[in-house]
Amino acid sequence: MTQHTPTQPQKKYVLVTGGAGYIGSHTVAELIENGYECIVVDNLDNSSYESVSRLQILTKHKITFYHTDLCDKEELRKIFVNHNIDSVIHFAGLKAVGESTQIPLKYYRNNILGTLALLELMQEYHVEKLVFSSSATVYGDATRFPDMIPIPEECPLGPTNPYGNTKYTIEKILNDLYESEKKNWKFAILRYFNPIGAHPSGLIGEDPLGIPNNLLPYMAQVAVGRREKLNVFGNDYDSRDGTPIRDYIHVVDLAKGHIAALKYLDNTKSEGLCREWNLGSGTGSTVLEVYRAFCDACGDDIPYEITGRRAGDVLNLTAKPDRATNELHWKTELNVADACKDLWKWTTENPFGYQLKGVVDKFAAQKDDFESRFITLGEGTKFEVTFANLGATIVDIKVDGQSVVLGYKDEAGYLQEDTAYIGATIGRYANRIAKGKYTLNGKEYQLTINNGENCNHGGPSTFHTKKFMGPLVQNPKKDIFTAEFLLLDFGKELNEFPGDLIIHVKYIVNVAEKTLDIEYQAELVNGEATPINMTNHTYFNLNKVNKETFAGTELRVASARSLDMDMKRVVPTGKIITREIATFDSSKPTVLGEKTPDYDYAFVIDENEKITDVNTAKRRKLTTVAKAYHPESKIGLEILTTEPTFQIYTGDWLSAGYTPRQGFAVEPGRYVDAINHEQWRESVILKRGDVYGSKIVYRFT
Amino acid sequence: MTQHTPTQPQKKYVLVTGGAGYIGSHTVAELIENGYECIVVDNLDNSSYESVSRLQILTKHKITFYHTDLCDKEELRKIFVNHNIDSVIHFAGLKAVGESTQIPLKYYRNNILGTLALLELMQEYHVEKLVFSSSATVYGDATRFPDMIPIPEECPLGPTNPYGNTKYTIEKILNDLYESEKKNWKFAILRYFNPIGAHPSGLIGEDPLGIPNNLLPYMAQVAVGRREKLNVFGNDYDSRDGTPIRDYIHVVDLAKGHIAALKYLDNTKSEGLCREWNLGSGTGSTVLEVYRAFCDACGDDIPYEITGRRAGDVLNLTAKPDRATNELHWKTELNVADACKDLWKWTTENPFGYQLKGVVDKFAAQKDDFESRFITLGEGTKFEVTFANLGATIVDIKVDGQSVVLGYKDEAGYLQEDTAYIGATIGRYANRIAKGKYTLNGKEYQLTINNGENCNHGGPSTFHTKKFMGPLVQNPKKDIFTAEFLLLDFGKELNEFPGDLIIHVKYIVNVAEKTLDIEYQAELVNGEATPINMTNHTYFNLNKVNKETFAGTELRVASARSLDMDMKRVVPTGKIITREIATFDSSKPTVLGEKTPDYDYAFVIDENEKITDVNTAKRRKLTTVAKAYHPESKIGLEILTTEPTFQIYTGDWLSAGYTPRQGFAVEPGRYVDAINHEQWRESVILKRGDVYGSKIVYRFT
After folding, report:
1. How many CB atoms lie within 10 A of CB B254?
2. Which residues pair with A481 in a beta bridge?
3. Are B180 and A102 a contacting pair at CB < 8 A?
4. What does the pLDDT read at residue A10?
5. How many domains would you assign to chain A?
6. From A83, A537, A630, A677, the catalytic residue
7. Which residue numbers delimit the NAD(P)-binding domain (chains A, B) (predicted)?
8. Residue in B closest to A169 by C-alpha
9. A265/A409 same-domain check
10. Is B172 within 8 Å of A165 when comparing Cβ atoms?
């Protein structure tokens, strides 16, 4: 992925309309790769926010998103007011040729009015560069003219359906607007041939609603069994194999064409322009050739049938791409085989596109605030886990329909002042740092004191109030869902710790095993080193989470060896002592009562005691460190980790809607205040080039 | 004008968008002529409500008007909800080619969005016939093809400016919509060549804002001195005289083309259609030929200069109108000379179009309710008179800036229950009818009793609560303004009198003479006969109209002979007596005091005593019947009339915001209760075929 240089004031903000769609999302990926910052606006009528969410994880970049219809000019205006936009790439529009012949008024209104609102605002806010998503459809049947195959941009236009007419009209609007103020405007009109394929990551691709109109998505659906067979419309054309010839272009090549056009506009000095470029390969493929390539990619000969010619089809519509090659210095680099391979990866990894059965989300703050969602994985199963973007928090875990963790019903609950980090991801530095002081590379740091005389859980820059990007939700195997969140923990003004971190939190929900795996990873992308210690702060109540204390819970731990504490200063002395608590070997468990025993102590995991590496996930195996069970609900919990210690806290100070001892926390992590203890220090210092990592598992029985 | 058949349930309602504009207004006139009812919607951006107002007087028809922008779909929806629309003629749109090249976005938004909103509502409300105002501009330069002059509808399209592009796009939208639901839609696309001329009445015509783009309006402005000279762009074309050839079509012919198209759609049974027709004469005229025709019409050789060719102009753009001739059975009947003659009449009678200096109007009830306006004539002069549509009421008369009549500030004042007919036109029957009873053609009628045991001033169907159409305001000579109002006093449910009347009220304001002439005219268009007696019920106060009584007013009348009254029944006995009142011959005037004398009596005008005709305006001369003067203000008033009697009422029962004796009324009219007195009866019975008429003059000194 692109090199991260977090504070680049010269970065150009590109507004991408329809950026959640097929070509839009691939172009966003390329824009970020090329150092542009993206703002996506999309009405999501025919696309999914998941593409944006996935792009954030894929690109490790914040992508500002607006769920706005371009036709709603006053909503659209807010984007121009809020952002310093340099240029626009305009994809938004209805695009199904067949549908356009059924409901033409909707196509004209949506495509033309949306464009007019956009252009009016660009005029008003002096945003004067636009790349427009046109289509080879504007040529109509180019075979009606002599010598117009391959089709050059000079070919007379003549669209033959309402969709094509809207593209044609928008081209006219752009031409007329340019002619009215030639010095102001720079318009690149890109006429796409047949975009196919998907991002090689398999994370984004085409997700057509209903029956696909296009050859490749249709074949893909046949291949995964969603459609019976492919219909080939006519094999009596004058081509190599009798089927019609089209110009297919890999969507990643197409996306790159937009970057080339944008750079061309950027590099056009002093005067305006309005110019059209074909984006095609220049190489035609027959339907059967594409069929063969796809069968090779999926390793199966999918069924097909030759049927009669389709009205309006012609022999050959291949692009002459010379103008783009010469002027934009762009040409296709991938072929149909590449596209088929990438499409097949996308299809097999996302057989129903962005829609995942068993995943639901809702807005946790305001409607359409996609940065504030609650996402439930395993919905409808016997193991459901809900996460929030805020703090990448575990909002709820339901075992056989019963909630077993504390959580709030909306984001506001988590943002209360006296909340106890309920369910949150804790960082940049979990647990206490004595007096909030530490030294690193010879420099002394002073953090804000927020807990007695110490700094606890990262102080004011704590992760539990930060909006994590994503999640990237996948369903890689039956019964397994993953959700990946990303936090760009950048910028001194927000974080008292040195350096910029990319924080990656991956949750794996196994609904069959009733396990929730948590994987933390952090990478320093700016600065030399930082202290780091992450954990999850879920409070469990295995019986009556919403009403009562956890009294009756039976607890055992892997080890009774615990950090000795200076109880006045509430930090470790550095010694290890033994506390009274049942271990796995004990004959009886420790039963947590209404008032006692009360724990807020770290215990040492013998196997990991001598840890020095910052990446325990890589070096250590998962060890079971605690088991809890409630005889009334008969729900058991095991906690595993790769970490050297775990804090047990019986929630004796819980407030903010909860009462003391309503939930208990088991927080695996590095040694408390390790940064200030030579023997533990190495494991909490992340240096540039290294990767911090750790794992925690919650297993329910 | 068209034959009036007031209750025709089979009449077709045509929604005319842009119906206040040049071609729209002429088409409305033709539609009404052809028996259609019109609803006009116009945003008045480039047109004037005056055209609608004038059309109402011209056609003697109610034209429902909506001041609505088509782009405001929810406002437009109200029209579809309120009316049972049969078909639409769609003129509304921006139309200046030159301007369109400057502000193309506004053209696209206005013209396309307006059309889409219209079509969406037509679809929703199942209104499926549309005549669309397209333009020969869609052909662009037809000379680029061989054999396309004269231009047939089959000529390939290629507009060369944003205006033309909007027309082209709308044609595409109509075609695509038709193709999507072929059975539903009937679309006639009319491609106009060059509309010129004006309505032969001189009442409506082209009223371009700013510098006219077109040849004829430009020449007209040169002729009246608003422009210096005509520029002829090139005389080196290959034509008869070297100037380019265009196809000019009289706007009345063009309007008739719309009727022909609408009838064609009406007559197309069982299936839909979408078809284009050229509306042109088929005969080209050169610029200099048109120039010569216009000079002949205006009787003057207006200055012109040959300048260089204008970019984009071509030699010849003449229509091939055969399709319209064959299919619509329409062809032009008027020529360029006719158009020049009618244009010259329009121009000389309306040198500044619909704008008249010294005339202002405001809304008297709700914004955009053009049926409820106050219109002031002579504004800014020493004699200003304000009229209302409601009751064709005299709202105010200002003499040297001082109001001398009672009136209210808005319509609501006039609609108060206890208001005393202040300033209103009184009818259908002014003054009392004994017991509300009368017989006519052997039938006995009983009116609602509203005054003691009698019916006064027409009872519940009184004119003072009715909205008069218009006014048609003109400024025929310096210092003279006219305002004509029309009331269709139709329908038994609203009027207790028999028969349908067209009531015409004409006011003539002479600001130099400080006179206000009132002319009443009524025509029976349905039924055999009706009683009728009209007057104006202005209350004068020549001194302090808004604060005090008229005390001190000196009054003299033409005659002290007065109708004897049965004071119990408040109706005439039939005898004439003499009352105590100063006549013009008396040595001293009657001075009206704070309390006395109190009059509510009718006096007889000797010259007109024996009147038998219902049209006094035609048969009688104006006679001065009363003079009033106030020594404090030094304002004098003379009242003249053609009528046989005048009621003097000292306003002793005034209320509704006024106090007794704040104003006095002098109401010329027929004999009180004449309908029930054999000797007077003939003068108040209007028979079918006769015309009722009378005149009143208020002269101030």
Report:
1. 27
2. A509
3. yes
4. 59
5. 2
6. A537
7. 15-342
8. B169
9. no
10. yes
Closest alpha carbon within chain A to B159: A172
Contact list in B for residue A105 (CB cut-off 8 A) is 116, 119-120, 123, 173, 177
Q: Terminal CA-to-CA distance of chain B, rounded, Å? A: 40
Q: What is the DSSP string of B460-524?
A: GG-GGGSB-EEEEEEEEETTEEEEEEEEEE--TTT-SSSSEEEEEEEEEEETTTTEEEEEEEEEE
Q: Is B9 a residue whose pLDDT tops 70?
A: no
Q: What is the rounded distance in angstroms from the CA atom of residue B191 to the CA atom of residue B173? A: 15
Question: pLDDT digit string (tens) for B126-172?
Answer: 999 999 999 999 999 999 999 999 999 999 999 999 999 999 999 99
Question: How large is the average pLDDT for residues A77-104?
Answer: 95
Q: Please indicate, yes or no, if residue B646 is contained in any of the structural domains.
A: yes
**Whether the Cβ atoms of residue B151 and residue B278 lie closer than 8 Å to each other:** yes
Residue whose C-alpha is closest to residue B585's, from B549, B630, B627: B627
A147 and A66 in a common domain: yes
pLDDT for residue B493 is more than 60: no
Share in percent of chain B as helix, strand, coil (round to 5): 25, 30, 45
Nearest of A521, A506, A509 to residue A475 by alpha carbon: A509
CB contact under 8 A, B101 and A180: yes
How far is CA B369 from its chain centroid?
A: 15
DSSP H or E stretch at residue A349: helix A336-349
Domain shared by B157 and B267, yes or no? yes
* CA A620/CA A232 separation, integer angstroms: 55
Instruction: Mention every residue, 6+ apart, whose C-beta is less than 8 A from residue A479.
Output: A510, A511, A512, A513
Structure tokens that stand for A476 in this block: 């890689």
Res. B5 pLDDT band, cuts 50 70 90: very low
Instruction: State the average pLDDT over residues A47-73.
Output: 96
| Domain CATH for B513 | 2.70.98.10
Using pLDDT thresholds of 50, 70 and 90, give the confidence band for residue A311. Answer: confident
DSSP string, A119-179: HHHHHHTT--EEEEEEEGGGG--GGGSTT-SSBPTTSPP---SHHHHHHHHHHHHHHHHHH
Q: Quick check: B1 pLDDT over 60?
A: no
% residues pLDDT > 90 (chain A): 88
Asked if A387 and A323 sit in the same domain, the reply is no
Q: A177 vs B119: CB contact, 8 Å cut-off?
A: no
A532/A597 same-domain check: yes
Residue in A176, A182, A274 to test binding to B, most B beta-carbons within 10 Å: A176
Contacts of A103 in chain B (CB under 8 A): 180
- Residue A26 annotated among the catalytic residues of the structure: no
Picking from B93, B177, B89, the residue whose alpha carbon sits closest to that of residue A105 is: B177
Coil, helix or strand for A267? helix
What is d(CA A650, CA B300) in angstroms, rounded to the nearest whole number?
A: 106
Q: Which of A506, A504, A469, A547 is nearest to A385 (CA)?
A: A506
CB pairs under 8 A between A and B: 78
Q: Is A101 on the interface with B (CB under 8 A)?
A: yes
- Facing B180 at nearest CB: one of A104, A120, A173: A104
Helix (H, G, I), strand (E, B), or coil: what is residue A566?
strand
* Domain co-membership, A413 together with A453: yes
Q: What is the mean pLDDT of residues A655-667?
A: 94
Domain carrying residue B17? 13-202+247-284+313-330
B121 touches chain A (CB under 8 A): no
Cα–Cα distances (Å) from B369 to A169, A504, B75, B361, B409, in that order, read: 37, 64, 14, 12, 16
Cβ atoms < 10 Å from Cβ of B547: 9
Structure confidence by residue, pLDDT tens digits, B216-241: 999 999 998 889 999 999 999 999 99
Residues of chain A numbered 167-186 and touching chain B (CB < 8 Å): 169, 172-173, 176-177, 179-180
